[in-house]
Amino acid sequence: MLNVLANQVLTLGVEGAASETTAVFLDLLKKKNQSVYIHSQQVANYAVSTAAKMRLPANEIERIKIAALLHDIGKLAVPNPILDKLPYLSTRELSVYKNHCNAGSSMLENMPEFHDIIPYIRYHHERWDGQGFPKRLKGVNIPLGARIISVADYYDRYANPCAKKWQKSTKTALTEIINRSGADFDPGVVKAFCNALGVY
Fold it and tell me: Is the peptide bond before 134 cis (omega within 30 degrees of 0)?
């Protein structure tokens, strides 16, 4: 189905193709797991606001928006029982879960309109200190779009009311992000994220 879709959208312009394909992927995600779908929408909102505070060019903000909407598209390849067990996974289940970054990137790799955002999706679980996955990238070696999505993803994962087993107060989630600045997260992105939330 996805290969047929890819062939169909190649006749559209890049922006049109990206928009059409993004909508289809999000619809698939919504049908698979409503919580992940809502999370993707929220992460995109936070990521766009953060990118705007960083005064990034409009076309880059648009790329970050699309990447944020699709950052968890690889979870289409993760069985729902594993998604439902998060964060309480066995070692084997955790390995399957962690592969969603590469799975999502692979789904998009033959679609030219997404080439620029694939690194943002693949590396959104990397950490500033190099202890993330899948490649253990460190610091500015992590694409900026991925660093922005990482902060937005963490915050919404804990602050979103849909995240029943994960949920913390928004204040706690934000405090943890600030405390992990320079370890898990790019300090410049954290500052912009806080600005976007009106914290400072």
Answer: yes
* Residue 61, helix vs strand vs coil: helix
Task: Give yes or no for residue 114 having a pLDDT over 60.
Answer: yes
Q: What is the pLDDT of residue 111?
A: 93
- CA separation, residue 134 to residues 74, 77, 103, 127 (Å): 13, 16, 11, 10
Mean pLDDT across 22-42: 93
Contacts of 151 (CB under 8 A, 6+ apart): 46, 50, 177, 185, 186, 189, 190, 193
Query: Which is higher by pLDDT, 162 or 160?
Result: 160
> Nearest 5°: phi and psi at 129?
-90, 5
Is the Cβ–Cβ distance between 196 and 188 less than 8 Å?
A: no
Q: Copy the structure tokens of residue 81.
A: 């029982």
What pLDDT score does 9 carry?
32
